[in-house]
């Protein structure tokens, strides 16, 4: 099986870029089993069939942009239909929609000014309502008088409360409602039709029973349920009728009584009366927060777990420790969409890699005979309240990728019971039998001393378990113990594919760490490094001395470049570090370690960029020294630092994304045996500075081998230290005595 086909909505817009850079807008007119009928906007009426496989290849080549609603390229006929749909709305609905549009535009203006999204959604609607309350109230009064005169002139009866709403007593919408309005407004190309609601069609949904009848019937049903389930509704209804007549109250119908019984006699109440409150909460509380999904990729669960297995370096046998595992699972089919392995603690850096691994198709050419074709964009992501899930970077990426994050209550793992069960099954089947396991029962067994599983072997075993053992095997949570992979394929066929990522710009812009910076005469500063580019001069000339805040996104696994969003023009600018010898291939964790080390070497002085370069050379020398010494005289602190220093954010399997993602390295596992596989890394792409005609090569040694900025070259023999240039070797020799003291202190 290949990658899942893409799913588009009818009358949605697709922008396809040809090999020469020209763009053409297409409208989806008809969905077929093996493709779509698309109509070019510049040739109305000329429908052409495009196979699903061809559309997928264009999408993977980075030449397809999905715009569900692109009003700028509508033909005249569709604009007229939209105008007719707007004119068909009642004046009251039009007024409400226009007022919602005022609130939405005010919120979007504040968000684009880089105000916190949470405070904007809470404060701006109330401020807009207070500012326009008097004017809107006067408009409502005039509309009510006009409606009254029109109905009286026509001889129609005047209904109480049939006029427009009272704006003077109206309340501002909540943050959740504003978020939904903004999403609909942007999805429909900023059309006011997206904000039209039909609340006036809703009937009375309250109870028609008197409070006395509600109280008596509630007590009667509660007493009956304490004895067990109510099976004979007719008999109990006669008993209720006798009790209500004794107190002089009207008797509800048997249908109303049956509805009340079904509402009260649910599973939770039955379990509470039979097994207690705790058992009822654990068994049924999940349905209060997480409703069951109705379609494919409607809901996913995301979580981290710390592996109970110690892994070692494949070449030297140096203990690296217990890696963190991040997984994303589709709640409907129980399929694993993406996975990431890292020695860094849970953070947005590790979570973003897992999200990217789940969104785009995976390259499984290194695993002959195995398929992992689960991918696609979801609607809701259910998470706990970890800092990585509620961070600004996570919320901003969710906004760019158009999905919502639902933060469940803390300390409630049963609310994500499906992925928790997956972690337990994964631990028992994948590595529970391996040497180096953390044992809580056998105190005499030391998993750190007995660890033999290599890091490359561990990653290879995880991919093999997911693609060969988990997806094709029956799952007890699915009907008839259907396999997750089989259920996924049936849902893909039923839903005509999966939703594509309707945003472009690469991984750094979509999933990078988001910070706010101002533009100075030296560019911008991120992690103490200067970044500059040709587009920053125009921004300074536009604002002068009154500089604004701009959103900057960077890859935490490669500080070579950053992307800046010009919120005035809506364009992204790529900026490069002015000291590529320090930033190229350097992760944020490595840079922080280099900065701390440079502070120690400066002995209280100012940390300069030259000091960072010397600290980087010294840290690489220390890394080689620790690897060379093996497990002799090593502490857990040194092991943790070494594992995190070697971490480069490599994907578990390469993803099929073009243009190539702005990442330092991509892993390619080529082994096919259970004992361990050959793992290699592609070299970092040459750095192209703005305005340069040819790419600037990476740092090289005397033999022309790229250094990669401290990135270890992994081969079938394991980690090999990168070659050090003569200048770096001289700097390391100058600091040899200080490095020796520091290595002794760490070890």
UniProtKB/TrEMBL annotation:
What superkingdom heads the lineage?
Bacteria
Q: Which organism does this sequence originate in?
A: Sphingomonas corticis
Q: Which InterPro entries match?
A: RNaseH-like_sf (IPR012337), RNaseH_sf (IPR036397), Transposase-like_Mu_C (IPR015378)
**Record-annotated Transposase-like Mu C-terminal domain positions:** 510-566
| Family matches, as SUPFAM superfamilies | Ribonuclease H-like
- Protein's name according to its UniProt entry: Transposase
Q: Which Pfam families match?
A: Mu-transpos_C (PF09299)
């Amino acid at each position: 099986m290949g990658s899942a086909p893409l799913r588009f909505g009818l009358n949605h817009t697709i922008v396809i870029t040809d090999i020469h850079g020209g763009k053409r807008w297409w409208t989806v007119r008809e969905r077929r089993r093996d493709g779509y009928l698309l109509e070019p906007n510049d040739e109305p009426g000329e429908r052409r069939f495009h196979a699903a496989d061809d559309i997928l290849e264009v999408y993977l080549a980075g030449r397809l942009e999905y715009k569900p609603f692109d009003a700028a390229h509508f033909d005249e006929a569709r604009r007229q239909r939209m105008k007719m749909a707007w004119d068909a709305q009642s004046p009251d609905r039009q007024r409400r929609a226009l007022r919602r549009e005022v609130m939405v535009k005010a919120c979007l203006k504040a968000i684009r000014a880089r105000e916190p999204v949470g405070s904007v959604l809470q404060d701006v609607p109330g401020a807009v309502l207070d500012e326009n309350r008097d004017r809107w109230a006067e408009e409502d009064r005039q509309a009510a008088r006009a409606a009254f005169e029109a109905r009286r002139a026509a001889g129609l009866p005047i209904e109480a409360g049939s006029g427009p709403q009272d704006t003077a007593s109206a309340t501002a919408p909540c943050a959740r409602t504003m978020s939904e309005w903004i999403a609909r407004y942007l999805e429909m190309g900023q059309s006011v039709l997206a904000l039209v609601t039909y609340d006036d069609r809703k009937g009375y949904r309250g109870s028609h029973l008197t409070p006395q009848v509600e109280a008596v019937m509630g007590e009667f049903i509660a007493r009956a349920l304490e004895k067990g389930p109510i099976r004979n509704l007719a008999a109990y209804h006669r008993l209720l009728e006798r009790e209500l007549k004794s107190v002089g109250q009207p008797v509800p119908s048997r249908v109303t009584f049956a509805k009340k019984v079904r509402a009260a006699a649910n599973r939770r109440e039955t379990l509470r009366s039979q097994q207690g409150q705790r058992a009822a909460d654990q068994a049924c509380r999940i349905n209060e927060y997480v409703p069951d999904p109705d379609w494919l990729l409607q809901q996913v669960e995301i979580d981290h777990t710390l592996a109970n297995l110690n892994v070692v370096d494949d070449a030297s046998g140096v203990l690296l420790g217990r890696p963190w595992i991040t997984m994303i699972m589709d709640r409907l089919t129980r399929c694993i969409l993406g996975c990431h392995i890292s020695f860094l603690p849970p953070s947005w850096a590790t979570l973003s890699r897992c999200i990217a691994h789940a969104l785009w198709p995976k390259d499984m050419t290194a695993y002959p005979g195995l398929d992992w074709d689960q991918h696609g964009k979801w609607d809701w992501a259910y998470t706990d309240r970890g800092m990585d899930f509620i961070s600004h970077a996570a919320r901003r990426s969710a906004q760019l990728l158009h999905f919502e994050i639902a933060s469940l209550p803390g300390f409630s793992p049963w609310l994500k019971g499906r992925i928790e069960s997956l972690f337990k099954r994964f631990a028992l089947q994948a590595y529970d039998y391996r040497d180096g396991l953390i044992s809580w029962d056998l105190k005499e067994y030391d998993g750190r001393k007995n660890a033999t599983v290599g890091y490359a072997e561990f990653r290879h075993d995880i991919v093999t378990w997911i693609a060969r053992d988990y997806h094709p095997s029956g799952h007890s949570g699915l009907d008839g113990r259907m396999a997750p992979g089989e259920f996924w394929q049936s849902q893909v066929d039923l839903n005509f594919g999966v939703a594509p990522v309707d945003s472009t710009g690469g991984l750094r812009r979509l999933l990078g760490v988001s910070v706010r910076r101002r533009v100075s005469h030296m560019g911008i500063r991120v992690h103490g490094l200067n970044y500059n580019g040709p587009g920053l001069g125009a921004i300074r000339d536009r604002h002068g001395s009154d500089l604004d805040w701009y959103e900057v996104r960077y890859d935490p696994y490669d500080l070579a470049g950053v992307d800046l969003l010009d919120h005035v023009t809506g364009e992204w600018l790529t900026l490069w570090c002015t000291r590529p010898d320090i930033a190229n291939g350097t992760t944020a964790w490595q840079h922080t370690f280099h900065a701390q080390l440079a502070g120690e070497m400066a002995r209280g002085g100012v940390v300069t960029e030259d000091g960072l370069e010397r600290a980087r050379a010294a840290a690489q020398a220390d890394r080689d020294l620790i690897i060379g010494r093996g497990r002799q005289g090593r502490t857990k602190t040194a092991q943790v630092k070494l594992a995190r220093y070697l971490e480069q954010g490599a994907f578990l399997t390469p993803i099929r994304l073009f243009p190539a993602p702005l990442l330092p390295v991509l892993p390619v596992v080529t082994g096919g045996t259970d004992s361990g596989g050959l793992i290699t890394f592609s070299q970092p792409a040459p750095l192209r500075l703005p305005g340069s005609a040819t790419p600037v090569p990476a740092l090289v040694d005397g033999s022309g081998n790229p250094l990669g900025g401290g990135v270890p070259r992994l081969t079938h023999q394991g980690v090999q230290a990168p070659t050090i240039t003569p200048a770096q070797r001289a700097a390391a020799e100058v600091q040899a005595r200080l490095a020796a003291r520091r290595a002794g202190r760490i070890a």
